Amino acid sequence: MPAFPPAAPFPPGATFPPGATSQAFPAFPEAAKEAVRDDVLRANLRRATHTIRDKRARAVTELADWDRLRAAGKAVKDHTLRHLDHYLLQLEAAVTAAGGTVHWAADAEEANRIVTALVLATGEREVVKVKSMATQETGLNEALEAAGIAAYETDLAELIVQLGHDRPSHILVPAIHRNRDEIRDIFRTEMAGWGRPAPEDLGDDPRELAEAARLHLREKFLRAKVAVSGANFMVAETGTMVVLESEGNGRMCLTLPDTLISVVGIEKVVPTFRDLEIFLQTLPRSSTAERMNPYTTMWTGTADGDGPSAFHLVLLDNGRTDTLADETGRQALRCIRCSACLNVCPVYERAGGHAYGSVYPGPIGAILSPQLRGTGSDIDATLPYASTLCGACYEVCPVAIDIPEVLVHLRERVAQGGPVTRAGIRVRLRPAHGHTAERAAMRAARLLLDRPGALRTAERLLARARRLRPRRLPGPGRAWTDTRTLPDLPAEPFRDWWLRERGTRP
After folding, report:
1. Domain 63-316 sits in which CATH superfamily?
2. What residue stretches are annotated with the Lactate utilization protein B C-terminal domain (predicted)?
3. What residue ranges do the domains of the chain occupy?
4. Other CB atoms closer than 10 Å to residue 61's CB: what's the count?
5. In this predicted model, what pLDDT tens digit does every residue of 315-363 receive, in sequence order?
6. In what helix (H) or strand (E) does residue 284 lie, and over which residues does it extend?
7. pTM of structure
8. Is 345 exposed, middle or buried (0-12, 13-18, 19+ CB in 10 A)?
């Protein structure tokens, strides 16, 4: 087994070490401040996100019933979440009846412990992996490494990330922050330490890079006896696992090894096989802008002489039950990981994925990570503020998650400092640093807005004093006016204009 290369250093806004917890990450504003100074990063992100979102927009307009599909997906997910206990038990029974084994993991540590024990029981010391956000969430690769097990990523983008001692920065395209020159250099310098080296004359043509990765991975596919995957969907009525991918590496991992271990979040279950009809239309168009995925792999338990002889399903909670208890925040669990929200987000486009300090970047990460992990760390307390609330993320979401609504909800939680439920225990979170002034401003605004007479008087006074408007605000407001120009105040309040024009009070 080759030795694992050392982790890269961790400057804010750049790469960060494997296995780091949320406590190790800087607050989002600090990380984003560093990221926006990187011209190459911003150029890579702008080019990639604009290309993907333009293709998605064209793919979606091909379906006249897109809005109905979106509503149907939302309805299926909401129904499933309301009855999650029932469908998970049904899923367990169906998987078991089909020859699989189901394991329940309350948190990341337990999931890693289960998977590590299963791999060690086979006597193997290598595993190949299908792209899996759940195992990234738990830090499985690092846990396996600590047990002397090499975990090889087989998705092209994930391979780039792994060889570069990096972390994913996008849900669909984990290496979106890398350009072709960087990928070529990574392959040239790192591939030999993980297996078959890259050709000495490797160029930056995408076909050459793909071929180098194909040759590097082929020997691993043919040698591996154990594979680890996630799943896009789990069908409760049949116990079927579903993986959608574009390269075929997933199909190799899911069919060649003797043992297959799938780590899947409990929210990925859907009630019936027919429900897949909706998501097999909306997910490809929202993610890769394709009518259907090139590879859609489905398997149900085990079968003699066909595929793995042993199948283990690890159902991962890791904060999902706590999220489910929040009536507003639970809609984040509808997410099907299409990444459409990232590609339209002006904040993500400039800050990149690493600034979010989570395997889930972008708008969905800004509402999912603070719920799964709590808002006790600086990074999680600032993620709900990593948005302009423009609403573009909601407009493109194929399951209609109202991300701006959840962001405002989480901002209120952070500003108030709790209480929330974590792991079944009622706790009060500490208010995030720097929000004392904001809470005071919100309370002052509430007092004014609750008194219509005082509000009308204040509006008239401001209108009459508009010539005295300062160019810069004092105190904390200076940070806002340093990069913006204060708008001109109107000559009269709206209420007075309405009374004069319409003869009635608004």
Report:
1. NagB/RpiA/CoA transferase-like (3.40.50.10420)
2. 410-500
3. 63-316, 451-502
4. 10
5. 999 999 999 999 999 999 999 999 999 999 999 999 999 999 999 999 9
6. helix 276-287
7. 0.81
8. buried
